[in-house]
Amino acid sequence: MNDVVLKLEGVEKRYNKGLAGEIHVLRGAELRLKAGEMVALVAPSGAGKSTLLHMAGLLDAPDAGAVEIGGQMLSGKSDRQRTKARRQDIGFVYQFHHLLPEFSALENIALPQMANGVAKGAASERGRALLETVGVAHRADHRPAELSGGEQQRVAFCRALANKPRILLADEPTGNLDPTTSDQVFDALMTLVRETGLAALVATHNMELAARMDRVVRLENGQLVDG
Ligand code: ADP
What we know:
- 36% of the residues lie in helices and 28% in strands.
- By secondary structure, the protein is an alpha/beta fold.
- It has a single domain (34-62, 77-226), classed as P-loop containing nucleotide triphosphate hydrolases (Rossmann fold, 3-Layer(aba) Sandwich).
- The protein is globular and about 50 Å long.
- The site of adenosine-5'-diphosphate (ADP) has 12 residues, from strand 2 and helix 1.
């Protein structure tokens, strides 16, 4: 497949640090992410990985440059239009799961679908199928606090994919797990990405996991270079 689903062009981002002055985090970052492709984003802490994911995910607007999703230029659009595109096309996963504590694993995956107009039965069915894919179906009715860290993170992946986004953005999704669990959770993530054919950009410090992805890009001096 050759469809570019996420395109960053000349993305610039500066932060004003008050008395400490200004820092220029992204200096013309370029990226093409294709459907079905899983790309590792590697850089030391503080280099700007989260900033880049925020730009890619339309959570924040670049100071200059463009972000295109599915061929549509979105970085210059209104908050409302960006929010709509984000809801439709982008799933996020963070280092910590951020699941809603008072709901079961299955409900955590069904609720975002219901908020998008999917009927409860269909939302639950898709939730179970996703949980099945990552091997957590037997824990569907448990609340997050009753799940292990690895199970919580696998549920968070399912939730991120609940509304069938085209792009998954993950910020150190296994960063909080021990090495064995991290491998298992990463396997689950890969299975989900492969089965759904989505494009994934995964920030990680773990070079072994990075090497298992289709390619690696490094963030160096505010630019993305093939790694
Ligand atoms: P990484 O994810 O690679 O650790 P970040 O994107 O979180 O890096 O941060 C890159 C740099 O930008 C850091 O120096 C950080 O302090 C700074 N930064 C990030 N977000 C903000 C913000 N909202 N305001 C000011 N500085 C920020």
